[in-house]
Amino acid sequence: MIKVLMHGCNGKMGQVVSRMVDETEGMELAAGVDRFLGRENPYPVFESVEACDVPVDVVIDFSNAAAVDDLLEACAKKGLPVVLCTTGLSEEQIAKVKKTSEKVAVLRSANMSLGVNLLMKLLKDASKVLAPAGYDIEIVEKHHNQKVDAPSGTALALADSINEAMDNVYSYTYDRSQERKKRSDKEIGIAAVRGGTIVGEHEVIYAGEDEVIEFKHTAYSKAIFAKGAVSAAAFLAGKEPGLYDMSDVIQF
Ligand SMILES: NC(=O)C1=CN([C@@H]2O[C@H](COP(=O)(O)OP(=O)(O)OC[C@H]3O[C@@H](n4cnc5c(N)ncnc54)[C@H](O)[C@@H]3O)[C@@H](O)[C@H]2O)C=CC1
Ligand SMILES: O=C(O)C1=N[C@H](C(=O)O)C[C@H](O)C1
User: Fold this and answer.
1) CB of 109 within 8 A of CB of 87?
2) Is the CB of 33 inside a 6 Å radius of any atom of ligand 1?
3) Which residues of the chain form CATH 3.40.50.720?
4) Which stretches make up the Dihydrodipicolinate reductase C-terminal domain (predicted)?
């Protein structure tokens, strides 16, 4: 039985993941961590991973970037593998993730869905054909009005997967309002829209001469992320220290 600690258990994703873990054979939601304690849960909830005295095998995290430093330190100290799904991390935090993965297994992914992870693979191939042919690349993402980080972690990960395929020639432009110049062909524009209850949309636009190709992923429920997180936790429990991502879990 894999015992899971849900970090950010009282949040929107934390609640969806908790239910899914309990419906998964061979897995149990053993405890939760949240700084907001005003919700009834069928498992004990602690204020921090450090304070948790329930034995667990793996941590699933959907919380807030401000919570990630303490989380990484506690996981390293307790030898706990962690599935890190929180977005909006700083460069320093990303470096800390790498450092922590020398001590424990860490799987970090800005998007746990099958569709987005396949899209990342498809974009690498598309970019190799379209970028040399002069197509400009723009990404537009849309999310609900409760989201605190922008652009989304997924938009950045999509841009990174394109950039990786193209020898990192691109810089990213997030805001054109202060610019009075034409875009260069070595930039990827990334725009964010926030409103209502939009679960998550990502559109990658390749605009060429007289021709546009668009790749679009739409999330219709948070369950697609929870499903990926549960698979990732099953994969990570008992793994050696190291830095993993969803390409280690999903075999295309
Ligand atoms: N990788 C992926 O596939 C996905 C990632 N996310 C990311 O997951 C994160 C959480 O998303 P939501 O559940 O929608 O947010 P939310 O705001 O509904 O939930 C976050 C929870 O974390 C708790 N929290 C905040 N600071 C904390 C701390 N210091 N210690 C313990 N708990 C703390 C909050 O009290 C809250 O209950 C965001 O960064 C979001 O972008 C969301 C969906 C999919
Ligand atoms: O905050 C969200 O909701 C989501 N965040 C992730 C991101 O920033 O990319 C993943 C997903 O799009 C939902």
Assistant:
1) no
2) yes
3) 2-108+222-249
4) 115-250
Report the pLDDT averaged over residues 2-29: 97
42: tokens are: 């069928």
**Angle at the Cα of 134 (from 131 to 137), degrees rounded to 5?**
55
User: What does the pLDDT average to over 66-91?
Assistant: 98
142: annotated binding-site residue? no
| Integer angstrom CA distances of residue 104 from 23, 52, 67, 193, 197 | 27, 18, 18, 36, 36
- List all residues 6 or more positions away from 215 whose beta carbon is below 8 Å from its beta carbon: 119, 122, 123, 126, 203, 204
Atom of ligand 1 nearest to the CA of 149: 41
Q: Whose CA is nearest to atom 1 of ligand 2?
A: 147
Query: What confidence score (pLDDT) does residue 251 get?
Result: 85
Catalytic residues: 143, 147
Going by pLDDT thresholds of 50, 70 and 90, the confidence category of residue 171 is: very high
pTM of the model: 0.97
Which atom of ligand 2 is least distant from the CA of 110?
9
Q: At residue 7, does pLDDT exceed 90?
A: yes
User: Which CATH number is correct for 2-108+222-249, 3.40.50.2300, 3.40.630.40, 3.40.50.1820, 3.40.50.720?
Assistant: 3.40.50.720
**ipTM value for the complex:** 0.99
pLDDT for 141 equals 98
Q: What is the residue with the minimal CA distance to atom 17 of ligand 1?
A: 11
CATH architecture of 114-219: 2-Layer Sandwich (3.30)
CB of residue 39 inside a 6 A radius of ligand 1: no
The 8-class DSSP code of residue 67 comes to G
CA of 53 to the centre of ligand 2 (A): 30
pLDDT, tens digit, for every residue of 97-152? 999 999 999 999 999 999 999 999 999 999 999 999 999 999 999 999 999 999 99
